[in-house]
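Case study.
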Amino acid sequence: MSTLQTGEVVGGRWRLEALLGEGALSQVWRVRHEELGNLAALKVLVLKRPRLAERLLLEGRIQAQLRHPHIVQVSDVVRHDGYVALVMDLVEGAPLDRHLATSGPLAVDDALGMLAAVCSAVVAAHEAGVLHRDLKPSNILLARQGAGYVPKVADFGIAKVVETSDEPGRTRVGAIMGTPGYLAPEQAVDASSADARCDVFALGVIAYELLAGVRAFDTDTLDVSNQPQPPRLDTLRGEIPAGVAQAVATAMAFEPDRRHPSVRAFAEALLADRPELLARLDATASGVSLTLGTDPGLRRTVTSTQVDPPPPESSSHRATAYVLLTLVAGGALSWALWPTPAPPVPAPAEPIAAQPTAVAAPVVSVADVAPGDAPPADPPPEPVEEPAVANAASAAAETPAPPRPAPPPPRPTDPTPPPPEPVEEEPAPPPVAPVQQPLAAAVEVTTPVAEPTATAPPEPPPPPPPPAVTGTWRGEANHLPLTLRIHDQRGTALRAEAVVRTGPTDRKYTLAGTISADGTLRLSEGDDGLDFRGTVEEGVATGTYTAPGARKPLPFSLRWERD
Amino acid sequence: MRRGAIATVALTWATTAHAGSGPWVLGQGDEQIFVGAEAQRFTQLAVGDGAYQDSVIAVDDGVMTFGAKLIGTLGLARRFEVEADLSYLYTYANEPGPVCELLGMGACKTTQGLGPISTRVKWLVVDELAGRPLSMSVGLDLRFGQTTAEHRERVTSLGDGTFALEPRVALGRIGTLPKGWWSIYGDVSARFPLPTDPAFTVGGEAAPGIELVSTVENLWTPVPVVSLGPSVSMLYRPQGVDFLETDFTEKDRFTALRIFVLEAGAKLLVRNDTGITGVLSVFHTVYAVNNPQDVLKVSVGVAFRDFARRRTE
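After joint prediction, the assembly is written out as follows.
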């Protein structure tokens, strides 16, 4: 492994402050510019192998072409003691997969806002001739900004340059790179055949996960085409519009010809009923204005004051460039970017003529804040325990990502409560459920301009958690013995298997659904299959189910047995 | 699990291997593999007079059969299942004596080889899960018995040597118990042997004739891990001749017989949570005409649900 040490200076200007993460092939460090004092992330290859160094440099060149508020920016390349490293934006925040693991599915508005931002980044990359090819929640970093988050797409490390270039293709025919569950089937067969529709597939899978709270394809094999398509989103959550569910289902089609032809087409289908989100699709490179706010009369044009990256290595002009930068922006930037436990400094509203005109990243919207509305008085709760720089996700990208660990199912305190005693006896407490961290509370539309606002309205109380229902439930469906095993619960989202005993032969059905705080249960096979609807109360689930060929809903009754 | 055909004089398909019994089918994409072994023995042959048993002939020191069975079942679609059945049999006479000598044609020589190969499709047309009071399925078996044709004249034969179509209908119902369930089903099939080349005939009659096969089984599962219950099976071949009327010089001397067999027994299943089920069954002939009347049959086996899926995970 690399012998870099904390405190070491690489490239003559970047001091290593802390190791943020490491994978089999690279390390990610937090570094500080010796002259300017700004922080950045340094991704260094730990093996001195020319071919891997070449690939890292290719990654850098690709990402350096992409200047977008929702793409992690690469600003420099350094060589140190035979090692090659990329300097990129330091993103303080957790990756999206970690947030989902603790918070469950997002509110629909949150998810669509997130997807609008991510799609705008991928659209910009595609229009620059760059594919990502490894989109997944762990490659979407949630950079804290003010009271909200800015999603940033990272790790274009295996991106394939679509347009013709001077260099021969880097991807060997037959080489397969990507992450199980998010890799398009045709990519699993031959990575060199990847086109924009591979990213469409991955975005569809990510959209499904954001809205359902569970992975669409929970598998460790690269080729998902032998998996069943998951239930439609609108069969899992009634509040998801049919158009959104259809757009996600189309994006996840196994045959590329059945998907949207481009990420833009996917975004347009997904956000057809949300023109204000669709407008952000083109909030990209320099000079493009992003309209914010809910008041049609209020339009703010935001540009960035992104710090210029250090000039490329040039022994003849380095000193001059440093002096100029220091005189013009060094003092203000040092103050602006000085590290604090708080989120990074927001960019000023007024354009600075000398600065590149990349548009500042708008915070992912959940509910547009109308003029006069104040942001919430309290900052949102932290979705992660440590302020780890999310760039570490890219360091681990070379090693296979472990499956997301399911949160340990909370044990019901007493699913079958004792017989009620008269009066004095209190009812058994409801089972403990995982606390939902709705992103809606943490994300809002804000503009970088600080305007005096009115006093913040009181926050609505958080919704009560749903009951924990994982385990084995036994009973009957109509007169047939039924065993229901709920093996995965993340917030309100459920995955289960129903086994109908039919003599010596059992019939098994894979179900997905939801449980709400009031105990309303919905489990469905999807697509005209079995569909259970009922309520859960004190360890008993009752309701009705429909089955193919049934003329009317039929009763079912189950009792919780065990985990 | 499906009950195979009952033994006849020529001691064919001792197939008590069980898969897909009753009208019910596996779920779509589910699969099951059953591996089993069985042994059976008889010593007496009931000779018929018309429809009834007239006398009993002791077959020297009896005939033993050992068999291995492999059955694969696949849920092709919702309510639709296919199955394939393969067996290997080894049959011998304990102590060939005067009766064997009298029968001639190497009647009691040891015989081994593939038993009849069966394939089946089953369609659950009425489903209790959809609210119906009963489940009903229709199916069609194809029995490829050609591998047993060569030695079909023996008492120790492995089959009647024919290819047959066997349409089937099954009815059943399931109910719940406090911690388990019960099930009962009955099925009836008609086996139509197709003409062979040259055609099997005895006295101008096609041999064997059409056969009717029926099974009724009732299983009780007080707790999910164990099921137990009785089972009764019947085989009736109305067309044919009585034992003493057949032409003992013909290769099809036994397949030309008119046959009736009724046997009863019990089945025990033990299962775990991972889709593995052990099966033990014991059957004994209750009444027979022109067929062995004291057949004792014991089979054991293990069924693996979703075996292939388990191996790829």
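Observations recorded in class. Residues 31-312 of chain B form a domain with the Porin fold (CATH 2.40.160.40). Chain B has a mean pLDDT of 84. We will return to this complex in the next lecture.
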